[in-house]
Amino acid sequence: MQTIQETDQGYWLLTQGSALYLQAGELPFGNAKECSVVGLQGCVIGEFRQQPLWLIAEIPNDQQREYVSLRAQLYRDETEFNLLNRGVALNYFYGTHRFCSRCGERNYLPTDEFAVECPKCGYRHYPVICPSIIVAVRRGKEILLANHQRHIGGMYTTLAGFVEVGENLEQTVHREILEEVGIKVKNVRYFGSQPWAFPNSLMVGFLADYESGDIHLQDSEIHDAKWFRYDAALPELPPEGTIARKLIKATLALCAEEK
Length: 259
Prior knowledge:
Blueprint: E1 2-3, E2 9-16, E3 19-21, E4 29-31, E5 41-48, E6 51-56, E7 67-69, H1 78-96, E8 116-117, E9 124-125, E10 130-139, E11 142-148, E12 159-162, H2 169-181, E13 184-196, E14 201-212, E15 222-229, H3 243-257
Parallel strand pairs: 2-6, 10-14
Antiparallel strand pairs: 1-5, 2-3, 2-4, 3-7, 5-6, 8-9, 10-11, 10-12, 11-15, 13-14
């Protein structure tokens, strides 16, 4: 991070948790003086619309600005959305790694890469990325969708969960599905991925086919789970732009092809 000067120019990303500051729906743009960020701490984290994108260090208790959820930006081009994810995740990382975990000295931010480094013992720590899987399960012409406890009465989506230590991604897929809905799957294959800065996850998407078992819910996580035919009415689904919605679309297309 460096102290922002009046003549620094570009787009400006200010965050509070997993939210960001917008003006008329867009990131502030212009020189630092025009955008009222002179004297704050920041750094360039990439290029946004062919201009530098400056990340401003998170401002504690910022009551002067109105922030909006990163989720509300899912409509954006994938490259833009992912860059906003980077900023949100970096501020979370910098805020939670102010001190060296080895000796307790206050860290500083090196200029050659995204990291923090201890000036006393030299230990360098890199942004923590927590991998999680998200998977759509198909049974012939049907897709499995679940209503999670946090969405009771609302959205049905695919199953997901964090990778545990000593576990590969495919093992996580099998374990999470068995834990959450009690069924076994086969033909697990990679679909795609999406950074998900809530606050620091990477969602790794898979498709899978039903193998055996009846639905038995993990009540602490899942409120309801059902098989839905591709050509019947579907419940409320995740918003466009999410990898969950992309997985559902791909699975529905496979259901339609099933003979």
